[in-house]
Amino acid sequence: MHPSRILSLGSGHGSPRKACSRIGGRTRRASRYAAHRHDYNKVIVVTRGGIIFGLPEVGTSLPLEAGDRLDLPAGTLHDAVVGSRGVHCLEAHLEPGTLGRRAERRAGWAAGEP
Questions:
Q1: Pick from 6, 26, 40, 45: most CB atoms within 10 A?
Q2: In the chain, how many H helices and how many E strands?
Q3: Burial class of residue 41 in the structure, from the number of CB atoms within 10 Å of its CB (0-12 exposed, 13-18 middle, 19+ buried)
Q4: How many CB atoms lie within 10 A of CB 45?
């Protein structure tokens, strides 16, 4: 993963409330996070392993693997299930209103794919 792709997460999207940082480490297998919301926009880039984000209000799920990015607007109800290999990811918190209105998965984002 090219470092400039990670460092640019907050640029052009308002002031990050939290700088990009590694979260977790290796998360236990089959870790589950119950449905919840945040009052900030969340951007996640998976660097290793995988995680599935569920969007119960729209009845869909978004699987993320290494290199994928998820833009999660403030107020979006979501849950998550960590893959069997665990997950490592980078996370940025941005002010509300700096992303679109719906969750968006960007496959291969960190690898420079469209």
A1: 45
A2: 1, 7
A3: buried
A4: 23
Q: Give one word for 24, left, alpha or beta, with left for phi > 0 and alpha for psi -120 to 50.
A: left
Residue type present at position 16? P
pLDDT, tens digit, for every residue of 6-58? 332 333 333 333 333 344 444 555 588 899 999 999 999 888 889 999 999 99
What is the pTM for the complete model shown?
A: 0.71
Placement of tokens 């900030």 in the chain? 40
Count of residues in the chain: 114
Give which of 67, 63, 49 is closest to 109, Cα–Cα. Answer: 67
Determine the Cα–Cα distance for residues 69 and 71; give it in Å rounded to an integer.
7
Q: Of the candidates 105, 112, 109, 100, which has an alpha carbon nearest to the alpha carbon of residue 70?
A: 105
